[in-house]
Description:
This protein is an alpha+beta fold. The protein is built from 4 helices and 11 strands; from the N terminus they run ββαβββββαβααβββ. The chain has a domain at 48-166.
Amino acid sequence: MAGQDIPEDFLRGPAPNAILNILDFERTSPPIPEYKGHFAATVDNFMTEAECKELIRLAEESTRTQLPDSTLSPPVWEQAMVNAGGGKQVMSIDTRKSGRVIFDSPKLADRILERMMPFMRECEIDRLEDKPMVTGLGPPKRGEVLHLSRLNERLRFLRYEGGDYFRPHWDGCFVTPDGLEKSLYTIHLYLNGEGGTGYGGVTTSY
């Protein structure tokens, strides 16, 4: 893989002109009344266009390797696979079809979280107490309060081209090997496009 030089000022500071919108599923179009009490939110203008392009560049650079002539190979978007349990993945075109880059970067994850934190606090999801729909029944029964520790450093970039898709699915929960951390929320960053060709996409609640 090519070396990663993340600009020191990249994603530093608050999001310019960002607008938080907490969804009310009884007022969405169409309404989804059976999702009353569920949580989802959007943040418009979370990143600038230049920041989106830089994030894509960093992801692509992570896939490039040095060739015998000392030049770098082209970026590689591998076919996305699905989890099969036990840490294994399998190809399943019936479920999903898109390009994917998996980029492990604690530094980028920390910077995204730093910018995201004001919105998470406003949404009151940086601290979870008595939220069985999110945590399951165990923590509320035990009187536990869960605190946001970090974002998962395994960043997944998806590229959808004409006709690509990801069928309706549930995101899994990742638990660290020591059992001390567990993922409970998913953050999507739409980097370009309006749901057509490119790196954009559409997420629908079911």
